[in-house]
## 1
Amino acid sequence: MSFMNILAHVVTGLGALVLFASGLGVFRMPDVFNKMHAGTKATTLGSVLFLFGLGLFEPSWLPKLFLIILFIVLTNPVSSHALARAAHNEPSEKPDNLIIDDLEESKGGDQ
Amino acid sequence: MIRTIVGLVIVLALSAIVISSVSDYSVPSELIGAGLNYTEQGVDDTGSVNLVTAVVVAYRGLDTLGEVVVLFSASTAVVLILTLIPIGANPTPPSSIVAFTAGILPGAIVLFGIYVITHGHLSPGGGFPGGAVVASAFLLVMLGSNTIPGKTKFLTSIESLAGLTFGLLGFWGMLTLGQFLNNLVLPAGSPGRILSAGIIPLISLAIGAKVASELSGVFASYRKAGGEE
């Protein structure tokens, strides 16, 4: 087994682990923002690692995989950002222990 | 707790029923019947390298026409309900991050959608997924803007034109070769080229335009239903 192959196994395995942790976080975290933290940040890293690992298995796939990675890196954080703001607009989703709320202050400020 | 147990019991009972009904089922080791015909003669019959598209658009074209009608009635119903009962939440202005992304990504998404639609007979894809991709670009543009879309006369005319094209392509086969939706009213060409496989690319285009305009219309009516308050 070549060095590249071992590295590819390690990277894809790491990506799968991160994705698993993300899924676990969605189940275990207490409120919507914590769930979102687990479900969006970790899936970005997990998918990127997994796709890059696939590219190490088959180097000829790397250009296409790089495009997919670029798309995920561009879209996944933006969609989670939009979702989080939408959740923030919903007062019933506000967790009890939320003390510092910069977004609320900035809304009250110059907007 | 009781709900969990009841759910578990239902799942176990259903599993028992399924297992008992398929216990003497054996997976055939080779293709038989229609599947064998499709795989052996599909490329010769239709000129489409992607056999899934060959089955969906050529062999079972009438089913696809039915699916298009189903999608049409579903989207009509959604738009009708949203017009009668506005859901009544004002659209919030997009944050700068969303607005920026909506400025740079839609072009690439539309390009990819057109690729998926036009290569339906060569690679996985076709009218339905490609149209959905194109519609998602419209959704992104809408999310990144402050405005509420106006009258969508343009979308409905594209939609009608695409549906009409699909039907007329079917009747073309009926008039020339005596068979509704016959694929070979155009030459099959050499399989693997983009201009091959008879009328499959044209039907893909029609389905793609129809799906994209329908879904965009649904998104637009959601936006309007929210904004009329």
## 2
Amino acid sequence: MQTADNLGQYRKQLAEALENTFQRKALDNFAVAYRDGRDANFAGIDRDGLIENIGTAKDAAMSRLDELFRKFCQKAEAAGAKVHFAGSDVEANEIISQIAAENNCSRIVKSKSMTAEETLLNHFLENRGYEVIETDLGEWIIQLRGEGPSHMVMPAIHLSRNEVSRLFSEVTGKQQDTDIEKLVKVARRELRQRFVSADMGISGANFAIAETGTLGIVSNEGNVRLVTTMPRVHVALVGIDKLIPTVFEALQVLKGLPRNATGQAITSYVTWITGANPSAASGSGRKNMHIVFLDNGRSALAKDPVFSQALRCVRCGACANVCPIYRLVGGHAYGHIYIGAIGLILTYFFHGRDKDKNLIENCLNCQACKQVCVAGIDLPRLIREVHTMVEHGGKKPVLSSLAGFVLKRRPLFHALLRSGRYAQKPVTGNSPYMRHLPGVFFRDHEFKALPALAKKPFRDQWDPVPFSPARPEYRVALFSGCLQDFVYPEQLLSGLRLLAGGRIEVVFVRQQGCCGLPLYMLGEHEAAADLAAWNIGSMDPGDYDYILTFCASCGSHMKENYPHLLAKQPGTGVRAERFAEKVIDFSSFVMRMGLGEAKEARAEKTRAAYHAPCHLCRGMGVRNPPRRLLERAGYEYVAHGEEETCCGLGGTYSFKFPEISATILDKKMAAVAETGADILVTDCPGCVMQLRGGAQKQKRPFEVRHMAEAITGKKR
Amino acid sequence: MNRSERTEQFTQKARAVSATVKTVATMDDALAYTVDVCAQKQACAILASGCEHALSDPAEELCGLKQWEKLIAAPNLEDRDTESLISLCRQAGIGLIEGGLAAYAGGIDVGLSLADFAISETGTLVINCPDEDLRLATMISEVHVAVLNSGDIYADSYDVADKLAGFFAKSDYTAFITGASRTADIERVLTLGVHGPLDLHVLIIDGQPSS
């Protein structure tokens, strides 16, 4: 559970997490195993179709929650259960405590429930004198340690067998082995007596089927079955977002949830409970059965035009599994109660702004979560939207306001960039890198060399003559992007050489501004929308066949976010869609135009590793063209496992969280070095900045090049 | 998929999650197999269910509740099959429990159940068990033996949606069971038998008409 008061404290917590070598190794192994296994897990399944169906079905259910709830109550009560409704977390805890009191229960066994974690139910019941025992092995371990879960599905992934053995030795009062199999059996025996002596069982539920009033619960260990069978009272605490119309929707989710969570086709057990079943322990012969539905903000969330999709979440935990930040710091530092990308969002709504204000900053916007989500939630977008609310809900940070002010004023921004070149001289010593970073702005940023501003921005070197054929086949608008215009103009210039004197007309519209992504990342969505409108106004999509950018970040922002940002303004949304359709990245464009072929075959090929920018491979969905282009250009493309992992830049992220950014970068550098590559190629100037900076600082034997430089420049 | 393909897929998928799957000709063969499994199995301690480990005193006491003879629980057999099983158990020196299973939470060696149907896509057994004894037989036994008619194997979970909805039309408890109880909560090492059975055997009776 992340509890820092401010960003400084939070960074300290993150630094500690980075020092936890066992956790680092465990999470890293898991990240790699999960990534490698995921495709096989969905073999024979139309994954995209399933994801779409789950999303659609959940959305439909959320739009009729009231009706589903009424139906569920009617059916479940007819079958002998008592249904309760709790508006808030405290109310849910009160109801459950009251059920315990009314039925003279004192010993409670519990199976895993994120909803009960959400309401801090155990603390509440323990404070009232009840004995509550978690029976899921991982949950029991962390309960004994007084911790919260560090992963939604594997709550004790941060602990070693040695720690568990020490813990079990304490608990049993007998020395325990470190053999995992033996430790598991000790837990089996210790917990079995708890089931026998308990008078109340508390479970969660994964599904609440309205049509029949049935609960569905997935589990591997089998403790759910004991919790719901042995004690005379059963209370299920269920978020109202688990309501679905029929068993069909449950079976649908069941096809995706275990596969995405742990790579199982299905969990060992799925338990379906309708109403009150026979119970030997109960005086009446029937289970004393209660179902407590928790709202806690969900019904309002369900009505929200943007955030309702957060309720599609089926709690598989995959968004943490693929998150490069989670992989380094684990769930205690990367969540309040709900962990991973969905946690960044739900924490704001369930636990408030204060609990989320540091967490929400800790996102690279790398989109890995969006790609893996089994319910098709656009997690990165929702994170950005929460970020805006967090920013605007409190005192506005100076950086955001200032950036908003400057970036929206194009001439001022460009003038500042130009004058920056003179101001930087003392720190660059005329090299292409900044030697000594101005400490105030860039504390803890010594892990990479930062580039200096170019002597002459691209806009001052642009010559339209070679790009103005008399009868052009294609008319292309070049979107330069700030980084390439002012820092890396050579990337644009070398790439454009491929297009010169041919059949393509390239137009560079001088009044184009920043794409607006930095503002969007800072939570300044209004200013970002203004910039989007400005750029679309400057480059009318009707005038061009393509809007070409060499920057994956600009490209994905224009393609994905312009339509969102401008959707609310009548007419503009349509133009934004038209604009977005025409945006194309450099590699795809070169492949489509059939350019970039190597002039001569070479006996000994240069080995090129590739870094897939997040905004290209996931943001724009471009995967094959860059790799094929490298081969077409005569390179020997050498693959590595971390190709699609974020480089750690994330725009301003690397300045806010330099330690994490540096560690992610290290991992990438090591993976590339292992391939023995001569050069590392990528499609985004931001990634070039991060990767080249890291390679320079670490004196790696490979050069980092933008694709445009790689296919037009000299081979090594 | 036809019946034999579904049987084949079920077998493969269930084995993939460490279940033992056998084809038997008749229910009598299934009963004999069950008694054999129990006879060959040593008492629960040897199966590493935890009895041999140093436990806290209350947990030790629970172990003491268990009679030190081997036990089979078979709560939902036809009368005729129960009769046959009683006689097989008697010959093998094994106790048979037909009801009141909650008193045996310390451990039952083998639980025998009849599965209602199965889903071949995932190797899943579906057991309708509002009866508490049947439920417990599949939960607290160390080995779970389930008998399944090959005619009751369906290809996909969607194919059984209506049957499930039928079960759920009144108060009900239905279990999907796929392989043995498992956990990976310590260092992600897969370990079988954390709370439920350590072992699952599925006996497929082939050639019988669907029940």
